[in-house]
Structure formats: C-alpha cells, structure tokens
Write a structure and sequence with these properties.
Elements (H helix, E strand, L loop, with lengths): L2 E4 L22 H11 L13 H4 L5 H24 L31 H19 L3 H11 L16 H8 L7 H45 L5 E4 L2 H11 L23 H5 L2 H18 L13 H14 L8
Amino acid sequence: MAFKSSLHEGLPSAHRLELGVWGLTGRSVFDWTAFFLSAISDVFIKCEKGETCANKCRAVGCFWRARESYRARNADDGAAEGIVSSMTDQTDGAVPPQDAETEKPVRAHEPAFNLPAGLVGILAVLVAIHAVRTYLLPQAVDEELIFNFAFLPARYDHPLTDQSLAWLWSPVTYSFLHGSWEHLIFNGFWMVAFGAPVIRRVGMARLAVFWCLSAIAAVALHIAFHWGDMAVVVGASGVVAGLMGAAARFVFSPSGRISRQFAHMNRRLPIGEALSNRSVVVFAGIWFLTNFLIGLGVFAFGGAASIAWEAHIGGFLFGFFLFGFFDPRN
C-alpha cells in the first residue's frame, strides 16, 4: 500500500493485514507450510532429483512426501554404507584396518529459498532505510527527510524555481520510504510474489528503469486526483502494482495456472490477447475491485484517506500496458 500522511500529523499509524483462513482442517502443518511458502511468497521447497515443488507436483502434500522420501533415502544410504565398510577394495584380499574411516558420499543440498539475488538486495535496502529512520534518526531529522524525499502534490502547485530540487527526485525516492514496519512487510510480501518472475525475465538493469518509471506513473495518477494536496505519499506499492501488471502479461500458462519457477519463460501475451485471457481478466478484475473498495473505505484499515489507492491504479496500468518496452523476450 502507498500511504498518505499529513505533514502536520506525521506518518499514519500501523495498519493491520487481515488474512483469510483457507480451510486448514484435514492437512498437516507441513502440508500448509509448503503451500503457503510456494504459492504466496515464491519460495520453493526442493524435492528429490533437484526438481521444485511448484514444478514436480501441485498438490500441497508434496512437502510431506518429500520429507518421507528424504528419510527413506537416508535409511537406505546408511545400510549401503554399512555394507561397503565391510568389504575390501584391495586385489590381494587383505582386509583394511578396522579403524580406517569410510569415506561418506557428499550430498548436495538444494537451497530452501529460491529468490533472485537482485530482489533480496532490494528488500535489504528497503529494510535498512526504514530501520535507520526508525531507530537511529532523531524525529526532527526524519521529518526533514520525509519532507525532502516523500512525494508531496503541493510542490507542483508552486513555482518550481522558488523551491528546492525535491520536486525532481521525490517522484521516485518516495518509493523507498514506508510509513511503518507493517507497511513495509505488506509491500515486501507482494514484491516477492510478483517481483521475482519479472526480475528473472528482464534482469536488474531493466528493472531499475521500470522501478523509476512505474513509481512516477503511480504518483502521476495520484496527483491528478489530489492536485495541491499537503499529504505526503510514501511506499513502494505503486511499483509493486506495476510489477503485478507486468506479470499479468506472461505468468499465466495456456491452462491458466502459474508455474512459479518457470513463469518467466512463458510467452508474453499481446495486450489484446491478454485482455481476452480469462485468467488475466479474473486476476485484473479482482485486483481493481479490491482497490476500488479501498478507495471507498471498505478495506482501508486506517480510512481511505490514508491509502493512496490511485497510485496503485497508475502503477498497474503502467506495468500492464508498457511492459513490452522492457521485455527482451519475443
């Protein structure tokens, strides 16, 4: 979410994120842990033969089967090592000394987390900035930082020559600031889900340009509805919305499903084809409906005035319609 806050009232208070309960009965803790990590935050649990849970089997019980398979393989390896240790590898039949150490095979461990390094770096920067602001900077210094780097629509209602150059960089720098830890975690949550396939597809150089332009597009639509407003805008949600719009152009397979590891390798849908794709239309429809309800105050946990939902719309439209200019794949 992009937060708005009056300069005189400070940043908005923490907003709660309420999650629905998805039928938890009938599944083990391991099942739902695997489902949550793989389906929501683009984290992959590696199964046997190096394949990923998202690719090998779509059932949420694959984490359970992988665990049981891992235990079975360990038991088989232990028995095999015991047999090998009792045999001789010398041609004259001599038995090696009993105290000779049996060389154990080196097992390659697959990483449990599979996120692009660039995305991890971005999240680290966002966390570091907010930590410094929260725990190290005096309040007066933090307020000065917000004034100079957050987006303020009122700046553009005055002659630009009569003010500092904050009007020039703030349409981008506001996306690196957040109103609270909850705000940052919420944006980071969706950035992991939709930023990972986009980064894998376009690379970090193109993503840097995409980040800046989607941030500008987000506040451009916001200022169209709030010209001269004295409430500052902070948060990366405009960029996250842009990543969602961009991902909608390629993550859906012909069957409508999403393979989280290989989604970035799909064909990019032309705009017309994307608008006629049922999965894309349903996804975009739910997304727009949610943001309109936020604008009406239905889902706004601090009131609609504290969420710059227009910036979400601007970012999404930019990502959806202009992603082709950043995508090197045919």
